[in-house]
Amino acid sequence: MPALERFALDGKNVVVTGAGRGLGRTMALEAAISGARIAVGSRTMSELETLRDEIEADGGHCFIHPLDVTDVASIQAFVEAVDAHLEGIDVLVNNAGYNKVGKILDYDEELYDLIVDANLKNVFFCSQIAARKMIERGIRGSIINISSQAGVVGAPERGPYSGAKGGVNNLTRTMAAEWAEHGIRVNAIAPTVTRTPMAESAMKASQAFADAIKTKNLLRGDLAEPEEMSAPVIFLASDAASMITGHTLVVDGGWTIV
């Protein structure tokens, strides 16, 4: 197969969680442009409907279904519906997540649990349930977990989030090791702070966080763009990455190297 063809997603069924806005929306759109059939989940169906209309207006296929990634029953229902509709899942992108900036001394148990459930427990159960479907159908699939640079280095004012994302990185390695015998590749992307509603809200809430972006993103001195994160996801989902598993690809403009 020619090199350029290996980067395409033609014939693949790609599932993206948290796709109503931000990174997930861009990832779903670009996967569709790359030839994939898309299924997306989110709590806000109106946003998914708009995304579906945009993909289908360009000749693509997009299945939408409600999803609350903090609820395992909702995850199960979502994966069951997607697997039945697409007749198999080739790629799962665990994009959904949540954060609220604050000092570690100020987090209460309720907010801690919400952040950890939305970022770590979510990835565990979405991946587990989707992997079962892949194994049942004999699909040598790919799972891509959207982590964060905050899971690679310390992240002041993002304690629970940083801990959860560090867990995602190590969980990725463990899943990759366990599921290699089934031909399922598991990798993670660790983005820098990217232009999304959640990031822009965090910058407004913390001047220290906003200032860090200006100095620690060595290539940009500003927010990254969603398309700069979706391109590595397309690569890891494609056959071009057929020998890559258990890897966390840090896409941070140099933030974590100094």
Q: What is the average per-residue confidence, as pLDDT, rounded to a whole number?
A: 95
Rg result: 17 Å
Q: What is the number of strand segments?
A: 7
CATH architecture classification: 3-Layer(aba) Sandwich
Coarse shape: globular
Helix content: 40-55%
List the helices and strands in order.
HEHEHEHEHEHEHHHE
Strand order of the largest sheet: 3-2-1-4-5-6-7
Measured between the Cα atoms of the first and last residue, the distance is 39 Å
Sheet with the most strands, sense and barrel status: 7 strands, parallel
- CATH superfamily caption: NAD(P)-binding Rossmann-like Domain
State the low-pLDDT regions, or none.
Answer: none
Q: How many helical stretches?
A: 9
The count of domains is 1
What does this structure look like?
With 258 residues, this protein is α/β, with parallel strands linked by helices. The protein has a single domain, classed as Rossmann fold. It is built from 9 helices and 7 strands; from the N terminus they run H-E-H-E-H-E-H-E-H-E-H-E-H-H-H-E. The N and C termini lie far apart (39 Å).
Structure summarized in a few sentences:
The protein is α/β, with parallel strands linked by helices and 258 residues long.
Write the layout of secondary structure elements.
Elements: H1 3-6, E1 13-17, H2 22-33, E2 37-42, H3 45-57, E3 62-66, H4 72-86, E4 91-94, H5 109-137, E5 142-146, H6 159-179, E6 185-191, H7 197-205, H8 207-216, H9 227-237, E7 248-251
Parallel strand pairs: 1-2, 1-4, 2-3, 4-5, 5-6, 6-7
Helix pairs in contact: 2-9, 4-5, 5-6, 7-8
